[in-house]
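Final report, closing paragraph on structural work. Over the funding period we assembled a curated collection of sequence-structure pairs, and we close with a single example.
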Amino acid sequence: MKSQNGEEVEKDPKWKIDEKPVKIDKWDSAAVKNALDDAAKKVMKEKFGYVESHKLMDMRLLICTVAVGFSLFALIWDFLRPFPESRPVLIMCVLSYFVLMGVLTVYTTYVEKGIFLVALQKDEAGIDPDNKWELASMLKKYDDMYHLSMTFIDGKTGIKRTKEFSKCVSSYFDEKGTLCFDLFEPEIRLLQNKISAEDKKN
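Its predicted structure, as stored:
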């Protein structure tokens, strides 16, 4: 099978998608991005057999949970010790909440960087550290260009290799907003193949 850019990608006859087609509102950029992200995630997990790591998302959830915890504590404390007696605690909780929201913003901007999947490639012998694959994407509002980058991190050396592509979303959706998985899947396979080929050379 050929990808959108005309390059040959080996097709695995034993692997296919049996689920119902994904249909979205093609004018909703968030829905379009999520559909493509989910499709890319599906290829990495089900075609290549990589195991998803939730550590990146878990840290975001932890920050949010602590922030909500401060809010709940403020409510409970104000109920037990009505204002103005609760004033110092309320001030501390409000300040803590806004500080944590700032931390969350920094985390999503500079740590997550649009990463929607961290997948682990387990060492078959179980001796070496797992290799890591990261997928990050971007689709600006009112824009039709979908940007996807795939990064491979060698578990032993820590060396990173990145490949990416940018395509118009209309390349993967029909007029009714149905995702054409058979057109999108080869793009993900091609990126993975290119990175794996470089890794073998080194």
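Residues 1-18 have pLDDT under 50 and may be disordered. Strands lie at 51-52, 115-121, 131-138, 145-153, 160-168. We thank the funder for supporting this effort.
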